[in-house]
Amino acid sequence: MIKAAVALASGIGLFLGAPAHAAPDRTRLDALITQFEAADANSDVEGYRKIADQTLAEARRLYPAGHPEIAARALYVAQALAASGEMDPAKAEVDRIIPVLAGAQGYKADWRNALSLRAYILNFKGDHAGALAINEQLAAEYASDPSSQGIRDHAVTLSNLAASYLEHGRLDDALARNAEAIRIGLALDPVPQDVAIWSANRVVYFYSAGRTEDAIVTAQEGIAQAGGALGTDHPAMANLYANLGAILMRINRPHDAMAPIRQAYELIEKANGGPNQNSATMRTQFAQALVRAGQHKDALAFLDYATPIIDAQLGAQSDRSLVARDTRLVALIALGQGAQAEALARELLAVRDARLPDGHRDRANTRDNLAKAAFSIENWATARDAAAQAVDLRSKALSPDHPDLLLSRAFLLRVEDRGDLRPATELVAEARQVFEALTLNAQLARGSAQAERQRPAYGWLAEVFARRGAADDAFRAQQWAARTALDDMLAIAASELSAKADPQLASLLVRRRELVAARQGLEARIDANGGRPDPKFDLAGVSNDLAGNRSEIAALDAGLTPEQRNSLMFAPASLEDIQATGERGDVSIMITDIGDSWLVTALDAGRVLQTLVGADAPVDALVAQLRAVADPTGDGVLDRAASSQLFAALFPGETAALVRSARQLYVTANGSLGSLPFGLLSADRAGRGLLMEKSTIVRRVGVPRGRTAAFAPTGNTLIAFGGVKGAPARTLMAMRSASTARTIADLPDLPDSRRELAALGQAIGTGSAQLLVGDDATEEALRRATVPPGAVLAFATHGLLSGELDGLSEPALLLSPAGNDDGLLKPSEIGAMNLPAGLVILSACNTAATSSTDRPQLAGLVQGFFLAGAERVLASHWPVRDDVARRLSVSTVRGMNNRLAPAEALRRAIGQVRKGSDGEPAIDKPALWAVFELFEAN
């Protein structure tokens, strides 16, 4: 849907101008003109063409041959031809029309619209220079005619000029003209629906330049702005919703993408009175989101509904129909129906090879799908042939380090490894080359859509390395596989924070960003050619420009100090790094979701053990069974069988013995395992003993490390925030959305939070305690606070998950809103502060939790505080009962003041709550005391 919005904005629906002329007996003609202008070519191409033909026939009945009125209505026919993709007949018609309308009194608007249509056709046919010349001519025409400025057709011309500028890589000019068009449109009364389409285009401009976060923010702002003018349920808003959904899909946020995609197809179907090929295409997009989210049967149900509609209106071999079948193929593979998927892949391959020119990306994409289908049923010969063909096609159409080519090479290596089709030394050597290129791409453009789409390759390479005994390579690759978009965002924040104190670094970052933007523009040209291959496209020239750009960036990076490099680059740990810091009894574990399997690396000072846990191991299901202990509708009894089964799945044989021997476990885990207190696993087959009962567990986020510096007792300063109520924030939050206001207002009070803060103050002992409660617990108060090294910084409030509120793209702590602060304290805001606390206590619900959405929670608030300088964080995996939170946090601080290491202090605090040895009633429900874990900075 992203590309479609640009076509709409520079195409058929936007060249209409209300004629200022009149003629005798025009009643029927004017009615047809009104009907045509209200028609939607996207919804009903045949109906659109029929009205155009009727309007032209009526004009010919009323006017003599050669009259400009006939030419003006023939323009409708040309538009209808363009709408149905018949570009050559449309161009011939408009070329005949333009001379008739040129200079005709009262027909200037029609002449301008004819020129606009010609520019659109030229753009579509690849003559971007010709299209740009026409659009610049039209913009100059409006600039010289004050009486025509500020009208809808002026805005249309500016929008089309923006699209032409984008085709020429002139992003800033495109954004400027697009902003002008939107400004004019919003000033009109009534506001034209085109404003929503132009806003959708603005999203595309940012995305195509690699500025993904800007694209997402622009989409959200466009929905608010255009929706405020037109109504959020206006059919024209569908493009904005669809583009937002498409971008969220492309950066692997399928759950977040579902809501806007659903809004898009529901709006179209409401306006159309039922489904059409546009809404069915969006339903296909929704099915893709379901596939990404693992809901494969639901995806097939959506496709069963959508595909026949697309076939009926566009044909079974149309691009949209083929995309629907691609989506079905992926769902079939996931459901274990590989043979059926392989047969479908061969059908799609035959169709696309017959229809598409050499160099079209879908020829390679279809071979990818055939390779994956064959891989799923262990048909190694077919999988290798298809994967090798995809690599060959991309090698001819893309630059050598393009993410799509590197993905193809990585998957081919995976096929050759699984099928044992190539010597191990060759596999490992090429895998290292591909890995180096992938990581260099990611370092150049952290957080970009390109960096995100190459992410699966890290898991495939980690698997190849692990299977072939290259343990350290596998360990590095799994660290890259575990990285998230939020990791990248916080890394960018860290480099920006460093730049504030270092003018030289700040200057370097500005230049580096300029070079990265230029690089993304070059890559966008290659990507655009992949959709519409041009035999004259200079791939070698663009590739050389990319190589030169990379050299310039490398030269800048070579001048960085080690400290600057650490703030700018992601540096995975080596196995040797961890072993060098370990002590007797220390065991480090990293467990990473690498796609359809898990990679487990476990080591102590003398051993490294790596295990690939296959897709047949029900890791996610077992985690869900264990987390069910926190379900308020359940009995709160831990599923001991699931606990021991999960341990056995993750740690077979020698690895299990290594973990059982640990006195202190350092654990780094992502995916569903990031949402589970690790101490709930049981090394006993009967599930009688839990890891937390015999081992001290330290959780890591980001780069895994071994033992940190020796623990020094926490300082005697407490700064604490709490006693925040949701209801007072309702009015301010209503500005964000009504559902947000309701969510905030409905949050329960935390009656024990004030008591917890007071008890923490007592636990600190003779030191100072600053309690900021209720209206005083604000973001500004935190920014102004002086947090001395080693202090305890505590929050007894609600934790909100990413996506829990409209527009909340990060997890957050709820504080009291004040001034310009919304009361939602997010990781990106925390990371910009100076908070060198010895311990941060997040005595709030879900502060380390993952949710059903796509954005990570665990790496969020915790990493935000680490970025701000904190040494360790005590956080929760699910909703907390505030009296238990008080007992655990207070006992942990007391234990630390008694010189216990923090993780050991928490372990003993949990034991005290279970036994009631802290002077309060014993509580032996794991749902209440297992919720907390201790995280330490790397």
UniProtKB/TrEMBL annotation:
Superkingdom of this protein's organism: Bacteria
Residue ranges occupied by any CHAT domain in the UniProt entry: 641-932
Keywords: Repeat, Signal, TPR repeat
Signal sequence segment: 1-22
Pfam families assigned: CHAT, TPR_10
Transmembrane segments: none
Descriptive protein name: CHAT domain-containing protein
Source organism of the structure: Blastomonas fulva
